[in-house]
Write a structure and sequence with these properties.
Number of strands of chain B: 0
Strand content of chain B: under 5%
Helix content of chain B: over 70%
Structural class of chain A: alpha/beta
Number of helices of chain B: 12
Order of helices and strands of chain A: EEEHEEHEHHHEHEHEEHH
Shape of chain A: globular
Strand content of chain A: 15-25%
Number of helices of chain A: 9
Largest interface: A-B, 28 and 25 residues
Helix content of chain A: 25-40%
Largest sheet of chain A: 6 strands, mixed
Structural class of chain B: mainly alpha
Distance between the termini of chain B: 27 Å
Largest sheet of chain B: none
Shape of chain B: globular
Radius of gyration of chain A: 18 Å
Oligomer: heterodimer
Radius of gyration of chain B: 20 Å
Amino acid sequence: MIRYEGFTKRYGRTTAVAGLDLEVREGETLALVGPNGSGKTTTLKAAVGLIRPTAGCVTVDGHDASTRAARERLGYLPQRLAFPESATAREIVAFYARLRGADPREVDRNLERVGLAADASREVQGFSGGMLQRLGIAVALLGRPRALLLDEPSAALDPTGALDVREIVAEIAREGTTVMLSSHDLAEVAALADRVAFFADGELRAVGEPGELVDALGVAAAIPPGTSDLEVLYRAFTAPARRVA
Amino acid sequence: MNAVAIIAAHELRTVLRSRLVAGFGILFCGLALAITLGGLAASGQLLVQGFTRTAVSLLNLSLYLLPLLGLVLGATAFSAPHDGTELLLAQPVGRTAALLGRALGLAGAFALVAGAGFGAAALLVAVQAGTDGFGGFLAASIGATLVGLAGLGVGVLLGVSTRTRAAATGAALAAWFAAAVLYDLAAILVLQLFGSGDVDGLLVTLLTLNPIDGARTLGLVSLGADVLLGPTGAALEHALGGAGGAWIVASLAAWLVAPLGVAAWRFGRRDF
């Protein structure tokens, strides 16, 4: 559904992402994993058209990612949300609903869905980080997008907030919405992702189902008790200069 | 309702609730009323100047304050890396529409603040001293507001050209200081050095390059510069007679449009 073909992004002499070939399949949940600065956010932003490729292309259902047709199919949750503090939750969702041409009934429906119905008339300046993230998801779900892109949806949240967000995303994925998310939380990735893409130094080091990747690496027998597959894979694929075809 | 109108309405509501605009609005209204009242006479009676004198005083005040508000408002609205622009541009909306909508919302809020200040002053003068000279006051008020809006456009350009709020605010303050303070000194120096021949042409050129000076001069001429400033005013009216005044009006229009056009161009090519 979302396809990267030779996607490269450079800032001066710095290469953020180099020659990325990746396809996000319809209905799957794909997690982008890697250290800070490895290219995860650049990859996500390129799909929404916020970052233009230096080389290569990114398409959504065959539409160039910079077009409105592509963005009509996507919902996006940025890493750091900023809403007008004096606006209420309902006003914010209603604004984006008008902008997307969404059914006005979706405003209250989405607020209900993310557990903010009781706070819909409150100004967001009193919201916790978790509530703001859930409000962001309510916005991202407007217009029933075919794919949801989430940039570190549970970063900087307390465990309760992170678990709330995780449950909402899992429910959305179960309904068949394609989800692409970046995360540093391997437990979250294990709970949500069908496939995992490991990034390091602006390169995609490996992508696949965790079990398959463990088999491909041939390290299944060597995984110590109490260590998850993802931890092993993370260390293996994000180590400097490690490359797996 | 199209995207530009939806974004403009949302921005207008948001900006009117902001502390910067609310605080500035109160300050501007307070100063406008204070200038209008003019002070207390020795007898203790309140003196209210007529429209023409009030317009001159308000013109000087507003040509300092309104461009400052415009520059800072425009620059800070577009500068922060996490100011909501990312989420806005992730919607099926064109970048030009997003910028134009936000700029129109800011302009609407700005015009309301300026209108409140000038309106309060006008009401006070009309009640206390009648409506004689209201036309000149209105022209000066509109001119000062348009210069402030030009400042807003420059501020938006500075905002989309910088990466942090601090950098944008610094650039806005520097631009204001250069246009409102330094430019006059530079213009005097240029006129001293090169003004021996065609002073009128050089003066008009200098006035077209700075909308604050251009609007101030047009305002004074429209209020009767010869009466207000004597021989200097008469010389000014001569310089701006014919094509000179038209050039300055055209330059003000260009100052309103050009910075926003460049900002839209940069905004369309920027990564977020």
